[in-house]
């Protein structure tokens, strides 16, 4: 770094994503969760020009107790660096940075990030009982559960209602988030919901909690994916152009809704600031954006908190169509969690789509001209956790 | 709930004992006066140890609220309204709210015994400020913050 002839820091990135893959998606009747994870892992490794034997870092969430241990056994991987951190649906964005740290510390060279769930087939989120029983004596059991808010939608509804109150965000603007994703999903043959959709359709869907209607909420699908994070040296073997990891950050703010003073501002502020600073870019340099749209309020908050618009203007920005195909900031280009797939956790799919867009591999929905810089923001918990990743095509 | 309330969380024993007595208590730091909930063994504002319990009026303002249309608890058929209330002394609590409550409404805490060690927290509108709202200008135009039509929703 200090030896650069012009005295500037080296621009050579040290970390790459070299393989991405989805498992079967939608309603998966012929695979188990571990087998889906394995199918995605093998495909991602093949794309990266690597094999199972090369994997020495394993990053897993939600695949049972001690997830990386269970998946490691299934894959026959005994890693030098293991991470089963539970950071909610945004864990895989978090894992990108954790893998960078592990690689930088010499603890691994080939990090496999993986996820699979058959949440739709197994119906583990029954509508009949919308809350999982909180542990007896936990803060949630004492202070949250008696109020009767369904999880997670009731908490997202509270945040949505507050955003509407503070900034005048409308239900039509929320609906435009779903419509934006759907316009992309119509060009993605793997998307779960592909039928044409209007703001009026979303507005007419059944109200489920507060301002949120059925089509403000993601579907529950089966699905999984895998991502390979590795070194510049290993990236040379990749079958597809490697994607450079230029910036990363993470943070979390709260677990219980009563502990966050400003419920409409998220940890994306901190994780975004760190990622922009590391990458040496700002929001004006971003070509495509992959927000975490489990509910329509989330991409609105992410737009604001990551500096794409003033606080409170995210809903209007969506309604103006800037994130749609042909817009100035294409977002949710896979169709997003609202239309493409949402097997409980959506984080890994944001990385997969960003990489495909940066390589020019996205088929009919490929953004043109081919984007060079992607911003990915994973969210976990009840808008509790955020990790931001900056990816570029060189 | 058959076990004593303090079996799993000894730090809230006093809070629930007060609740059974119809009182709402919050932690108050002797050093800086900061109020906090849930209880912790230190002050979130100034790090002083052992904040003491103090009784509060239970009056607060609705920070956010929603009408719930999904079944959550068997004993609580939808629709009903729940939300976050910011107490005058600072801390926020989740509780059940009267039908038609909107953000900004002034409410007061009321414990409703349910035969367990931990009564259920309800909020009523401060007297004279019913579900149609406090006297004066509504803080938000249109439907923003409104919890939906009160039609069919039982008053709690």
TrEMBL record, chain B:
Q: Which domain of life is it from?
A: Bacteria
Q: For the ChsH2 rubredoxin-like zinc ribbon domain, which residue ranges apply?
A: 16-50
Domain ChsH2 C-terminal OB-fold, first and last residues per copy: 53-112
Q: Where is this region: Disordered?
A: 132-156
List, as start-end ranges, the regions of compositional bias called Low complexity.
134-156
Name the PANTHER family for this protein: BLR3430 PROTEIN (PTHR34075)
What is the recorded name of this protein?
Uncharacterized protein
């Amino acid at each position: 770094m200090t030896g650069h002839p012009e005295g500037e820091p080296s621009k050579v990135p040290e970390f790459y994503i070299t393989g991405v893959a989805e498992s079967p998606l939608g309603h998966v009747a012929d695979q188990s969760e571990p087998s889906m994870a394995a199918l995605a892992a093998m495909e991602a490794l093949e794309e990266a020009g690597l094999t199972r034997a090369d994997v020495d870092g394993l990053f897993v969430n939600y695949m049972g107790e001690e997830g990386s241990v269970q998946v490691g056994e299934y894959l026959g991987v005994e890693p030098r660096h293991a991470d089963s951190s539970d950071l909610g649906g945004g864990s895989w964005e978090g894992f990108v940075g954790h893998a960078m740290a592990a690689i930088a510390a010499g603890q691994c060279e080939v990090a496999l990030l993986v996820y699979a769930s058959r949440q739709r087939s197994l119906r583990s989120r029954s509508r009949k009982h919308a809350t999982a029983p909180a542990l007896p004596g936990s803060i949630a059991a004492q202070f949250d559960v008696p109020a009767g808010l369904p999880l997670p939608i009731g908490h997202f509804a509270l945040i949505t209602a507050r955003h509407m109150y503070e900034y005048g965000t409308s239900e039509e603007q929320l609906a435009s988030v779903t419509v934006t994703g759907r316009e992309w999903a119509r060009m993605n043959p793997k998307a779960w919901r592909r039928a044409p959709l209007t703001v009026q359709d979303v507005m007419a869907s059944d109200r489920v909690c507060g301002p949120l209607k059925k089509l403000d909420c993601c579907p529950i699908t089966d699905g999984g994916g895998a991502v390979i994070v590795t070194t510049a040296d290993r990236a040379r073997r990749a079958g597809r152009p490697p994607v450079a990891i230029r910036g990363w950050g993470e943070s979390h703010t709260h677990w219980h809704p009563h502990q966050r003073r400003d419920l409409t501002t998220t940890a994306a502020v901190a994780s975004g600031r760190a990622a922009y600073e590391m990458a040496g870019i700002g929001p004006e340099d971003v070509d495509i954006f992959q927000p975490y749209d489990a509910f329509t309020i989330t991409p609105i908050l992410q737009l604001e908190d990551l500096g794409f618009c003033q606080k409170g203007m995210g809903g209007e920005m969506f309604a103006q169509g800037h994130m749609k195909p042909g817009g100035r900031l294409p977002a949710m280009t896979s169709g997003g969690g609202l239309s493409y797939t949402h097997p409980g956790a959506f984080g890994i799919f944001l990385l997969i789509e960003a990489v495909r867009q940066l390589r020019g591999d996205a088929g009919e929905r490929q953004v043109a001209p081919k984007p060079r810089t992607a911003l990915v923001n994973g969210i976990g918990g009840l808008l509790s956790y955020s990790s931001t990743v900056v990816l570029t095509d060189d | 709930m058959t076990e004593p309330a303090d079996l799993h969380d000894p730090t809230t024993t006093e809070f629930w004992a007060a609740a059974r007595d119809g009182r709402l208590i919050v932690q108050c730091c002797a050093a800086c006066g900061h109020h906090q909930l849930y209880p912790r063994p230190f002050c979130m504002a100034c790090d002083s140890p052992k904040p003491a319990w103090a009784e509060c009026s239970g009056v607060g303002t609705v920070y956010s609220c929603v009408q719930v249309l999904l079944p959550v608890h068997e004993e609580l058929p939808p629709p009903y309204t729940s939300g976050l209330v910011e107490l005058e002394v600072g801390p926020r609590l989740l509780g059940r709210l009267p039908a038609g409550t909107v953000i900004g409404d002034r409410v007061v805490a009321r414990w409703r015994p349910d035969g367990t060690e931990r009564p259920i927290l309800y909020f009523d509108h401060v007297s004279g400020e019913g579900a149609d709202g406090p006297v004066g200008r509504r803080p938000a135009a249109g439907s923003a913050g409104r919890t939906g039509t009160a039609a069919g929703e039982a008053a709690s």
